TrEMBL record:
Protein name (Swiss-Prot/TrEMBL): Short-chain dehydrogenase
Origin superkingdom: Eukaryota
GO terms assigned for molecular function: oxidoreductase activity
Record carries keyword NADP: yes
Keyword NADP in record: yes
Pfam families, alphabetized: adh_short
Organism annotation: Ophiostoma piceae (strain UAMH 11346)
InterPro entries with a match to the protein in the record: NAD(P)-bd_dom_sf, SDR_fam
Keywords assigned by UniProt, alphabetized: NADP, Oxidoreductase
Family: Belongs to the short-chain dehydrogenases/reductases (SDR) family.
Amino acid sequence: MASVGYMRPSVMAQVFPSAPKFTEANLPDLAGKVYIITGANAGVGKELARILFEKNASVYMACRSEAKCQAAIDEIKKSAKSETGRLEYIHIDLGDLASVKPAAESFLARETQLHALFNNAGVMLPPASQTATVQGYDVQLGTNSVAPFLLTQLLTPVLKSTASATKEPTRVVWVSSMAAELYSEKYGIDMSNLRGKTYVRAASDPMTLYGNSKAAAYLHSVEYARRHRDDNIISVAANPGNLDSDLYRTVGGPGQGKEASAPADQDAGLGFVQKMSMKVFRRFMLHPPVYGAYTELFSGLSPEVTLEKSGAWVGPWGRFFPMRKDVAENAKPKSEGGLGGAEAFWDWSVEQVKPFM
């Protein structure tokens, strides 16, 4: 889909976005607000945590490595203009569904409210030696879709109760990618390829699998919005933008030194042309991670993101865009003239996470 995807005006507008219109300058005092950000120890997640912390929010940083998370916390606090917010570590490994419920329980033991959940963590083009999660899913689908779905299900009761108590909508932000539009298969997710517990196929293009996993986040977002609108929960999927973040660690380029290639044990299995294209893309077209934080900030806190906008596709640096037509049609239920793919994928996801609820 990539060859034609770049021709769409909305995609070009996401590649060359206008200036951010919702930043830390637009935020009120967030004292008393509570947020969870997965993958908050680096990149976009860390920038978002910094912004919310400096506005006095309580931010729970759900990360795999305590040492890396603590280093990020120390760095944020050292550079912060204000220290009246809170930064808390929660252990989670999105590559292992068994770690998700303990993470949710750790949060719920400490807080009674949650104002927004940012499903920010993700993996792109993992090393060819690390293609599956602990439970056997393709590592991109498992990390970017199945585990965030489980975490969101476990935290939905507190999102509902917070919305009820505050009389204000709470939010779930499903961080996706432009790859959902450019690289996913037709309809975003091909249910015929969801064989049992895995999405791994014998000769899969890693970029297609990545695009599928990010289209899956969009499908989850749309279906969650449909199911929880009456609970006063807003759900949006967001393409944070083209960012020079830790996601590119397996392709080499500027973030690893001017002419660096990925270490041999981190090779993602891309072909030569794909690798060169990715390096050129990384060198000339990527933006600092803080811009991605602005996209997520808009999605999670902007007053423009109303309940009527729930289910929308948000792009850089905080604007609404149309999703690729076939994926958008698949997201709609059959009762609304769509193909019902989001509902079918939701049902499949429910079955996958049942043992871990």
